[in-house]
Design brief:
single chain, 231 residues, mainly alpha
Length: 231
């Protein structure tokens, strides 16, 4: 496809940053756009696997601690999310539960919750209300030091970083640039990719086996960075 047609479809404002990043080489601009999509797809797949692993581990732990219907029961009159400090979490559960209606099952309700919901279970009010047990999910987590506290607040911040990347990809924002600049730089993508792998390790999950055949992030990052080289 000619660049003029590619630009017409994707829009000139959208393509300007790609074109600037490769010094107005139209062929490279199209290649960079496609490589960015490939990197986004790879990262989204890995994050999706992590999200499923995270929610399943939380569900398993809370089922053991609070019963088979813990999510629905948490918003009952005496449920652990009935506290006013957890009202937003309770509101989300209640809305999803009502939407399921007669189709409700606990697994379906679990599947309705997005990444942000699971992340907020590590926020202080929700973490405390449910019994302060969620760190058990990370048996490989480092021990806290005087300078770094690997507590629920730390986990919450790491999950926020992953959630932000997930949202960037979902909203078709590029992940191949230095943030705020028309300059090829995969540092942001690489750092967040490493963070997901680290949290898999904290969960004692063999991420290489889990992601076999799915993870080509480093290969695509190399291809993107190579576009910086002058021919």
């Amino acid at each position: 496809m000619k660049y003029s047609e590619f630009e017409r479809i994707m829009s000139k404002p959208r393509m300007n940053r790609y074109l600037t990043a490769v010094r107005n080489d139209t062929r490279k601009a199209m290649t960079l756009y496609r490589r960015n999509l490939s990197l986004s797809q790879e990262l989204f797949t890995i994050i999706s696997c992590f999200e499923v692993a995270l929610r399943n581990a939380i569900d398993k732990l809370y089922t053991k601690e609070h019963g088979d219907e813990w999510l629905k029961d948490s918003i009952s009159k005496n449920g652990f999310f009935s506290d006013k400090k957890c009202r937003n979490t309770a509101k989300i559960i209640r809305r999803k539960y009502r939407r399921l209606g007669r189709d409700y099952t606990h697994p379906k309700l679990v599947a309705e919750m997005d990444f942000g919901f699971w992340r907020y279970l590590y926020a202080s009010p929700q973490f405390s209300a449910a019994g302060k047990k969620l760190l058990k999910m990370f048996p490989g987590k480092p021990k806290s030091t005087p300078s770094v506290h690997y507590d629920h607040k730390y986990v919450f911040r790491q999950l926020e970083k992953i959630n932000n990347l997930r949202n960037r990809i979902a909203h078709h924002e590029a992940v191949c640039f230095r943030l705020g600049h028309a300059e090829i730089d995969t540092t942001y993508a690489s750092q967040h990719y490493s963070l997901v792998l680290e949290l898999f390790n904290w969960m004692k999950i063999n991420e290489q086996a889990l992601l076999y055949g799915l993870d080509h992030v480093n290969t695509i990052i190399d291809e993107i960075e190579n576009l910086n080289h002058k021919e």
